[in-house]
Amino acid sequence: MAVEAPMIRPVPVVNENDSDDLSTEVVLRISDLSVWYGDFHAVTGVNITVPKNRITAFIGPSGCGKSTVLRCINRMNDLIPEARVEGSILYHGHDVLAPNVDPVEIRRRVGMVFQRANPFPKSIYDNVAWGAKINGFRGNMNEHVERCLRQAALWEEVKDKLKESGLALSGGQQQRLCIARALAINPDLILMDEPASALDPISTLKIEDLMRDLIRNYTIVIVTHNLQQAARASDQTIFFSLNENRQGVLIEGGPTRQIFTNPEDRRTEDYITGRFG
Amino acid sequence: MSVAAKTERALIEPERTIWRPQIGQRQRQGKIWSAGFFVATLSAVLLLALLLGVLFIRGWDWLSWTLITEMPSRAAERSGLNSAIWGTVWVVSGAAIFSFFVGVGAAIYLEEYAARNWMTTFLKTNIANLAGVPSVVYGLLGLALFVEILNAGRTVLAGALTMGLLILPIIILASQESLRAVPLGLRQAAFGMGATRWQVVRAHILPAAMPGILTGTILAVSRAIGETAPLIVVGAAAYFPYRPDGLFSQYTAMPVQIYQWTGRPQEEFRDLAAAAIIILLVLLLSMNAIAIVIRQRLSSRKRW
């Protein structure tokens, strides 16, 4: 019987637009983060710095805790009763994990886009307007909705049907509506949890182009299973994997160009070239 | 013999010695069971048809506008359900309003706010148990609590509150069920935008759960329309030829009136009761139909 040669994927092409300069102002400083689900120590000892106006991508095999870490940033793990988080996440110097911090206050400044496009079962207009309304937006709502939809590259496609249900849009449009909705709360940081994993390649590229546009004004952290996407779109890449106790750990992080062309750790190289995962 | 047939034979021969597929026998077993299930269904449907048939035969000639417009009377041909229909409307609307707000409120607390600990689990389990308590027990509770202690007497108010307590667990359970069915993605999206829990519940979770809550409420209310025992215990009048004029009025109700008529020695009153039951059934079936329509209307508008 012939031994099959391991399939080796070509190393993804790194986008020339990516910035290697990660020395901008620090938006997030995650130190020594650990997460438990019940008795299970799911993520341990994670340290990350997220620079302003850059895209930071979390990559790694399934179950390595990259989504978990992302959800700690805006305290979404609070919604899971048995989740427990330790360590610190400094957001512009303020620890979001401190016991006296109201998660509502963080989520107000941190927009989130989820894996499955989840527009509210409301009109396109209301999908965008709701977040602004509940957060006390007092300006001109029509202009605000238009601005957010334009920023999400959706305005031209929906401007004549703002009263129609957000659920009537295509998958890619729904995801851009969710991005517009996240922009409507005037965030400073946007978290994206595999935003393109359920989309076709063209919609995926649209989202990536959109992200490159958005970082002029925002900072983005994205979890992705798609290495090409991380290579194309991100400036900084953080690689997570599992240790021998099946716990999520951070293997290495750095400028995307370096991680994809000259990784320091053997495990990173194996993952990126497709020998693992 | 072709090569293919030879190969097939070679494959099949040894199989015969260790495998007994007996497909025919397995299929026969299945047929026997399915026949049994059919008989079970048929007997349920037949019994119901028989019941309805007897009702219609006995009550058909007595169905008339008099039955709806007239008050109960000593003479069967001049007797009507008018006061009982109004009594039922008063008691059941009172019960529905009371138990809808209390029930939905309790369900929201249990599903959205309560900490997940043994206390909450204990409460939830016992609410489910309450839904199975016999209705006459609620009658006794109502008699002690509303009629005696709160001194409401034998009034619409006491009847409505008792009936409200009876259907409260059903409404809480149905509401909990539909709140739980709201997709996690919707909650996450709303919380992720910096909404407080109340804003999430008010703007997204309640509207999404409302079809299920309304359906549960209507089904609970139609149960209340048919309940007799608790109303007899808390003092619905056996003979009350007036419309109730407020919460503190005396009253009678349709099932109580029917029960009273069936107890009369005269044959005509029992036929009259059959006719009254037909009216009660029509009312119940219309309520259920409304519940179905609401569910279809509201759920076809949403999809996740």
Describe the overall structure.
The complex is a heterodimer of chains A (277) and B (304). Chain A is of the alpha/beta class and 277 residues long. Chain A has a domain at 26-115 and 189-272: Rossmann fold. Chain A has ten helices and ten strands. In chain A, the strands form two sheets. A six-stranded mixed β-sheet of chain A has the order 6-7-8-3-9-10, with helices on both faces. In chain A, helix 4 (141-151) crosses helix 6 (171-183). Chain A is globular. The relative contact order of chain A is 0.21. Residues 1-7 of chain A have low confidence and may be disordered. Chain B is mainly alpha-helical and 304 residues long. Chain B has two domains: 21-62; 65-301, Orthogonal Bundle (MetI-like fold), CATH 1.10.3720.10. Chain B is built from twelve helices and no strands. Chain B is flat. Chain A binds chain B through residues 74, 76, 79, 81, 104-109, 111-112, 114, 116, 118-121, 130-131, 134-135, 167, 178, 181-182, 184-185, and chain B through 116, 183, 185-196, 199, 203-204, 207-208, 301-304.
Features:
heterodimer; A: 277 residues; alpha/beta; Rossmann fold; 4-stranded antiparallel sheet; 10 helices; 25% strand; globular; B: 304 residues; mainly alpha; MetI-like fold
Task: Give a brief description.
Chain A is of the alpha/beta class and 277 residues long. Chain A has helices at residues 66-73, 103-109, 124-134, 141-151, 155-158, 171-183, 201-214, 227-233, 256-261, 266-272, and strands spanning 26-37, 40-51, 55-59, 83-91, 94-95, 110-113, 189-193, 219-223, 236-242, 248-255.
Give the topology, please:
The complex is a heterodimer of chains A (277) and B (304).
Chain A: E1 26-37, E2 40-51, E3 55-59, H1 66-73, E4 83-91, E5 94-95, H2 103-109, E6 110-113, H3 124-134, H4 141-151, H5 155-158, H6 171-183, E7 189-193, H7 201-214, E8 219-223, H8 227-233, E9 236-242, E10 248-255, H9 256-261, H10 266-272
Parallel strand pairs in A: 3-8, 3-9, 6-7, 7-8
Antiparallel strand pairs in A: 1-2, 1-4, 4-5, 9-10
Helix pairs in contact in A: 3-4, 3-6, 4-6
Chain B: H1 3-18, H2 23-59, H3 65-69, H4 82-113, H5 118-130, H6 135-149, H7 156-180, H8 184-191, H9 197-226, H10 229-233, H11 254-262, H12 267-301
Helix pairs in contact in B: 2-12, 4-7, 4-9, 4-11, 6-7, 7-9, 8-9, 9-12, 11-12
